[in-house]
Automatic annotation (TrEMBL):
Residues 41-324 form the Transglycosylase SLT domain. The lineage of its organism: Bacteria, Pseudomonadati, Pseudomonadota, Gammaproteobacteria, Lysobacterales. GO terms for molecular function: peptidoglycan lytic transglycosylase activity. Gene3D superfamilies: 1.10.530.10, Bacterial muramidase (1.10.8.350). The active site is at E128. This is Lytic murein transglycosylase B. Residues 1-30 form the signal peptide. It comes from Dyella solisilvae. It comes from the Bacteria. The gene is mltB. InterPro entries: Lysozyme-like_dom_sf, Lytic_transglycosylase_MltB, MltB-like, SLT_2. Keywords: Signal. One of its GO terms (biological process) is peptidoglycan catabolic process. Pfam families: SLT_2.
Length: 337
């Protein structure tokens, strides 16, 4: 029987099917990290970046056990009596006063622009990185790969941060992605911004076309101030005020630091502020284990804003007290705050 040659379209169909069968029979490409292929696919889809370049970048990242160890013992797990001395030291206060004085003109100009008291910008930098001296030794890429792909308890958050890091344009980074260093959590720069905060709140204040949170003080100060302003900082508003509980004070449990009662309601429940406060001011209450027993603090909107930077009320109170000490030592007037 004479065989009839297949037509050109038919031959192309058979060739395509052959390639598909061959591909199906090949083993899947090995991933350096679990979930790397899916992550690369998402970043390439959303940004148009080259998958091969993204894979090469991630192939160079390393899972680090020391990062997993560090996140399991955060300082915020300490009681206030042990947490406060870490940040409210004479050296950190004096260094903050000197830092404020050295950069006073720039700090106060940016503070005025964003409506944020400049001593709080300084206090954030003081608590986070000791005024830029310790911005972190870990590669940011290693930290976010470790926590985003190897740490199930918070994998969703850190994977999102890793994806954001890979998606950031060069103009929003202080250098190539694989050279960036920061904390064990992947925060970078003097203010320790996570990638999503760089994307959403970073400011190119010096006008050089790049958001550089490691080398540009205008960018650093303005980005922190912008973060606070965008989260609802109230210019001239209170942050926290010490209170005293009477013997019949009602026990109060708070989920977060968001203001939810007027001061007068807390007073009716047995808590009296040690300074005059507007009785209608929205507030919350923090009960902390201090060096001399329980401490009670009325906290307000600006305190809550600080907790969006770090959700621990211990952190927010340390920033507040450091800011107050810096303002007092630097001779900051009420009109500047």
């Amino acid at each position: 029987m004479r065989l009839i040659p297949a037509s050109l379209p038919t031959r192309r169909l058979f060739a395509s099917l052959g390639l598909l069968f061959a591909a199906a029979s090949m083993p899947a490409l090995a991933e350096t990290h679990p979930g790397q292929g899916q992550l690369v696919s998402e970043v390439a889809r959303d940004t148009g970046k080259d998958p091969q370049a993204l894979n090469s970048l991630l192939d160079g990242a390393k899972m680090q056990q020391s990062i997993l160890d560090a996140i399991s013992r955060p300082a915020e797990a300490k009681p206030w009596r042990d947490y406060r001395p870490i940040f409210l030291t004479p050296q950190r206060i004096n260094d903050g006063i000197a830092f404020y004085r050295e950069h006073r003109e720039l700090l106060e100009r940016i503070g005025q622009q964003y409506g944020v008291a400049p001593e709080y910008i300084v206090a954030i930098i003081g608590v986070e990185t000791s005024y830029g001296r310790n911005t972190g030794k870990y590669k940011v890429l290693d930290a976010l790969v470790t926590l985003g792909l190897y740490y199930p308890p918070r994998a969703t958050f850190f994977r999102d941060q890793l994806k954001t890091l890979l998606e950031l344009p060069d103009s929003q980074l202080a250098g190539p992605v694989d050279t960036l260093t920061g904390s064990y959590a992947g925060a970078q720069g003097w203010g320790q911004f996570m990638p999503s905060s760089i994307r959403d709140f970073g400011v190119d204040a010096d006008g050089d076309g790049r958001i550089d949170l490691k080398n540009s003080l205008p960018d650093i100060f303005a980005s922190i101030a912008n973060y606070f302003a965008k989260h609802g900082w109230q210019a001239g508003g209170p942050v926290a005020a010490r209170a005293q509980a009477d013997g019949a004070a009602r026990a109060i449990s708070v989920k977060d630091s968001k203001p939810q009662w007027p001061v007068e309601q807390l007073e009716a429940w047995g808590y009296a502020p040690l300074q005059h406060m507007n009785p209608g001011q929205p507030s919350s209450l923090q009960s902390l284990d201090g060096a001399d027993g329980m401490e009670y603090w009325f906290t307000f909107q600006n305190f809550y804003v600080i907790t969006t930077y770090n959700r621990s009320p211990l952190y927010a109170l340390a920033v507040h007290q450091l800011a107050q000490a810096i303002a007092e030592g630097a001779g900051v007037s009420e009109s500047t705050q």
